[in-house]
User: Fold this.
Amino acid sequence: MATSKHDTPGDAHGHQEPAHYDGHAHGHISVATYYRVFGALMLLMFLTVGAWWLEGVVAIPRLLGVIVALTIASTKTLLIVLFFMHIKVSSRMSQLYAAASLVGLLMLFIVIMGDYFARGWPPQLGPLP
Amino acid sequence: MATTALPGRGYLEDDTPTVWSWVKAWLLTVDHKRIAILYLLSINFFFLLGGLAATVVRIELVTPQGDLLSSDLYNRAFTLHGIIMVFFFLIPVIPAVLGNFLVPLMIGARDLAFPRLNLLSWYLYMAGGIFALSAAVFGGVDTGWTFYTPFSSTYANSNVILTIAGAFIMGFSSIATGLNFIVTIHTMRAPGMTWFRLPLFIWASYATSLIIVLATPVVGITLLLLAIERLWGVGIFDPALGGDPVLFQHLFWFYSHPAVYIMILPGFGVISELIATFSRRRIFGYEFIAFSSMAIALLGFLVWGHHMFVSSQSVYAGLVFSFITMLVAIPSAIKVFNWTATLYKGSISYRTPMLYALGFIGLFVIGGLTGIFLGVVAIDIHVTDTYFVVAHFHYVMVGGTIMAYLGGLHFWWPKMTGRMYNEVWGGISALVIFVGFNMTFFPQFVLGYLGMPRRYHVYPQEFQVLHVLSSSGATVLAIGFIVPIIYLMFSLWKGKPAGNNPWEATGLEWQVSSPPPTHNFTRIPVVTSEAYAFPPEAAERDAASWRPGSPL
Assistant:
């Protein structure tokens, strides 16, 4: 492989300025935003407990209960991923990786649920309620 | 522009005054090359341990009566073999040893992006290993390496929790390494080192890292759920508690099938390097090999259900998984065809690494083609849980990963240590391993097809001949693995100095001294040509320098 020597800045410990660093100045999340997100997460936690309590005292269709629980959980996840894990202000590449993991997760859920419903359950067993 | 003055001292050299400070210098090092050496020693230790368990299994199977071990002890022996070999050898070996050593050197960087995370990954590996070993010492585990529920979660009376804790911790080590490679390859390539100038080992390492980062968390959580069910009786997988045992298999194989590609993809990368160097040719269809690694990484996520054809998985899911399994054969075949096309009209020299590379191609073709058999639902149902499956995955994992690892180790050994090993012994051991491997595992295809189930220590008399043949082969194989340990160790004292580039290979790692300086490059190189750009006269030079008695 043909090369030529190139003076690249680096300190005495060998730390190297990445040659392909994208140079993209990433945003910053303020402390106030962290507190607001934390407050939202606490609120959602109470909502989770509230929904569970409500399901116990009021006759709610099971499917609706599941949808509500999943919506609250997804919102919590989204807040944590976007703000606490800095995806909102990260590089496009980091966002792509985060999205890829979400796609992987969706694929896992869809295929497993597809298999679950298509297994040929005896009618008396379900799986649907 | 400022010129950087960096220590040009070899990474193995030390000026530590006491033994303790020498030990500390190694155990707290953040140098990727030293961490690779730490991994080399620890992973090879686990390999020998897993080999010992395999020896016990093969000795037991010499006679049909099951007279050496009880059935319970036999279960624990093959489980120990499987867990150590899969989680503590095959998955980490090439990324952690060769990848750690080579990724920064090959792309012209001074270290990985997160050197401390790299060191942490080794400590996590060791911690996971200690958990798994302590499980073995305190009685072992009898679930098989797959930990299928509800046996593992409810009925097994062995050290399941300790063992899965080991695998769980080791998973984090794997993730740390994968993450480090992805960030390093994206951000630390030398100027001019564009994506399509990267050595194919880097492409393979990148594809592997992608799988590691995306799939390993799933098995981590699955093992955690298994522990929760086992410890507190929460119904997740046990049908008696309202769980679904097939769910475990889905989640387990969602990781563990891609894990096969974690094992084999870096091996593909190594083979591309070896074939190009010892044919003195640019690899045929560079872009196709690079993209086939990515295609395997992606398709590898969509085929896990082919491990579950008889699990009560729906027939529709089975059909789809079977079809997608066939698709994986395409990028795999692209690689094999391109390697053979590279050999065509190349100036081939049969040095030790090349012997391993050629052995790899032969064994991987057999392993891959029998994988297609197993991807067909009808055949798979016939041979599920027989020795046919055992033979198939050993051809892929051992015939593939270990051949590539040994080939790579021999290829880069002069770079790692600065010394040449004995080429005659190298060639002999490569041939012994190839013969021993085929003797061990080819009879198992026949055994499996005739109906010999896996994981049984008592078997019908008519299978004994093939089992004895297989155990004899395992003895040859074991000798083949021990010989390199001896001559490689010997080379450290008596080996000829290697020089910077003993193979006249291309690639940035061959432009630095052997062993490389601590910070790899005193000045960061600028890459101006494509990978594997062998000069046209390289083959002529080879022919001119050949003398009777020199390696072919």
User: Anything to note?
Assistant: Chain A touches chain B at residues 1-12, 14-16, 18-22, 93, 97, 100-101, 104, 107-108, 111-112, 114-116, 118-120 (CB under 8 Å). Residues 31-114 of chain A form one domain. The helical segments of chain A are 31-57, 62-84, 92-117. The radius of gyration of chain A is 24 Å.
